[in-house]
Fold these 4 entries.
Entry 1:
Amino acid sequence: MGYEGFIDIVEKQLADLRESQGETVKAAARLIAESIMKGGIVQSFGSGHSRVGSSEFCIRAGGLIPAKEMYFPNSTKYEMVEGVGTRFMEHADIRPEDVFVVTSFSGRNPLSIEVAMCAKEKGVKVIAITSVENSRKLSSRHSSGRHLYDLADVVLDIKGEFGDAAVSLPGLEEKVCATSTITTTVLTVSTVLEAISIMLEAGFVPPVYMSSNVDGGPEYNERLVREYSGRLFRV
């Protein structure tokens, strides 16, 4: 299979998500819109390659300014170690008006599970971006036996092939070409779009990043970021 076949696979997956995830995208968007209109922020976390999807919420042209990535260095190394996520979240600045997004394709590793657990304990709504079918086929690596989807108020299901990689090639045992980064990004941006639309319909104009590569963009962003700097630039 050449690259055209891979694009065909991605197109089919996106068509499936368009049909199956519409209501959950809108539900997640409502949580985000309500949070920001109450003065909260979006807090986003992902480990390993799931961090790519998580970072799409934050500091992105056309994206929401009140959004912060909870970055854990070397997360791939520690995501299977129980207790790390709980310790990481001990001093996190999470407030009841916030909303927390946790991204994990497998949804089985302790780091993401504990981040979601701690967010729930702090009283915030949790949105999970995960593959429910894949997760159900895998045992949890957390002693609670729970998966990420068990902890979420809304689950955005990215689906995908078992193990994420989607293309088989002659002479190679392992599949290649993971798709979750693409599907996660599409669902993430779609959710942000819906949230912005909800806020505008409610008469609330949300602060949105202008591209820093457009003349005047850095100055425009600086004025809006200043309002949230006390939340965005602390753990």
Entry 2:
Amino acid sequence: MNAAPKATPEDTRYRAPALDKGLDILELLAGHLQGMTRAEIIKALNRSPSEIYRMLERLVARRYVIRSTEGDRYSLSLKLLALGLCHPPIGRLVALAQPLMNQFSAQAEQSCHLGVYDQGNVLVIAQVPGPGVWGMAVRIGAHVGLVDTCSGQVLLAFQTAEQRARMLAEHRAVQGEVPFPQEKLEASCQRIAAQGHECRESLQSYGVTDISSPILGPDGHAIAVLTSPYIRRIDQHAGPSLETALTLLQEAAAALSPR
């Protein structure tokens, strides 16, 4: 994509020059996955350096655009995608997921929740409690950590390297987040991608084993993640095993993944 398309007479009836400049930058960057320097943006849009500088700074501040670590290149963040997911597609996903989550909860005797990526972390958009007296649940609307939770790491694992880098660039630590070194996180993502799911002791609560399975889009990348904080009963009601719960969770996630 080069310069922004010229406006037609109909387009110019109600002009908003500042908004147009911002949209021009977003549309331009959408065609350059590796980002662009400020000089390249100025040349492509045929704008003055001062105009582009001010607009870029505002887009970065509002997290629609991210600046490279070196500070010389700009690229789109995932915020526009996250905003899009907040509307009808999310409602559709929840509607499809709810009966499968109810079925999992009844069969596995565990709670489960559905999460999507949202502005640097994981947003819980649906939740079903376990059917028994005891259980653990994550509330709807909660943001959980991208780098230190089962849900977050599964979402990261099933992305392209470029997409994962953008998600991590947007990440902001949530309360109580456990530090996770970059090398360790990358190794974890590779392992999760190879095995197709994650199952490990929770880093947030004692006695909980988190199991997560991705909901994959047609391109094989995660659009959401289904997670269960598995709690093992030690009284006379043993309940389904961890292995059984994992299998049931994987089946539910697979049923939600578009073919």
Entry 3:
Amino acid sequence: MQTMGQALGVSLLAATGDYRLAGYLNAITFLIAGLVLLSGYETLKLPSATVTVTSTFRQLLRQVRQAMEAGVHMNVLALLGSVLFLNAVGASVDALLNLYLIHRATQLPFSFGVAILVVNTADVFGSVAGNLLHTGYFQRWTFRGVMLTTVVAFEGLFINLLFWQNYWVVVTIMMIGGFCMGQANPKLMASLLKVADQSIVGSLGGIINSLATISIPIGSVGLVLLDNIVSPEAAYLTAMGLLLACGGCLFIRR
């Protein structure tokens, strides 16, 4: 749906040049989604499950730490650090690539809008495939292996942006990176749910989601500011450093 929406939006803007019309279209789709949700709201209510309530915050933290370390066989701070660093870089990739495409607009194989659509489509296609393919070899692929592959892929992306700036390499790596990211989150949660007590499942999900949220301004603001204020090369090198830190965290054992 994201790919279809991007294609429709780019086509609409290319045909009319009217951003206000695109805004109205977005508003209408949000309104329709809200009406559909309200019409089926009663069917979404689930019976409450009885869970064991953790008595103290200290005990909750201990249970969360034990579940994380037992689930992925990593030191808990290393695990959280790897998630933080990778999401920080991941949050900045779209913006950095948009700036890269703007700077090289005259050298792209397509128009600027189509070039962005192709990159985003490759990312979405890889992400959907990564979320769906969890059988055979991919079922045996460990969380650490997925994360290391993601780090290597994005390191290759920034090396390409530093030296070759080949558009098709960017498209290919975005598809690989999307696939790995699609594999990583389900594998992490599945590993944690296998060993976690029912009473701390919400806390585990909250911690992972909070880290992802915290990392967004680090990447989307910090790295993009570097690109604009210093140079694109400074942003790429900083992103590569964060990726190396992520890779280093993955080798810190429990």
Entry 4:
Amino acid sequence: MRRRTIRALARPLVLAAAAAAIPLVTPTTAAADGIVVGGFPIDSADSPWTVALASRDRFGGTRSGQFCGAVAVGRTTVLTAAHCLGEDVLGTSPGKVRDLKVVTGRTDLRSADGQEISVRETWVNPAYDGVSNAGDFAVLTLAENLPDKAVIAMAAAGDPAYAAETAATVYGWGDVTGAGDYPYHLRAASVRVLPDALCEQAYPGSADGTYRADSMLCAGERVGGRDACQGDSGGPLVAQGRLIGLVSWGSGCGRPGSPGVYTRVSDVIRKLGWDRPT
């Protein structure tokens, strides 16, 4: 799944595009620390809410313009990582990306399956902190409806899906080796939600970021291996059939003692007021 590098200068899990956008298939210089293991191919029909965030204009058309992951939580509402929409990734503001789209129903990015739906509006969490990586989420509003089956339920605060040691799955089209090896085919990796204490010990505060249990969770394996990587940012972490996390950041990919960190979806729900009666 994710790219096996020290996440691009300890930045979050997306391939930095800088001012001149570079297609994700182009390898970048990175410090690889082993191969991410445990990932497996999966059909988009088995996770229809997993969508690719794409711009052919910015990232080329070889892989449908995919540069981040995203997840559908409503028929016109998609969540992704805030850092995916940063100028250091897009080379400009998201409002100036003329062909920003989500790709749905496409297992193989080389195919014409599924749909490419234009993003009508973007909202990036203004409280996102690029130093600690807290608040790493953004909301995309689509120009067309997704099918009902393409929407996943979100786990609210207190949901048992957040409990430590819960089995979970992360999805994406991200790097599988750390050397810019981006698959065309959607992949998934089986991981476990890890205790907050372990994550706080792994990331007490450094150039990588700071783990904050109120807005983050981490997942992987204690011995390393199964993980997300570069290009998976914004993609879903799912447990017990519900969305619990968005791929966000970490130190390397699949490294022992350095689990992947995810934006906690219950915190997104709270901050957006989606937990209040309408």
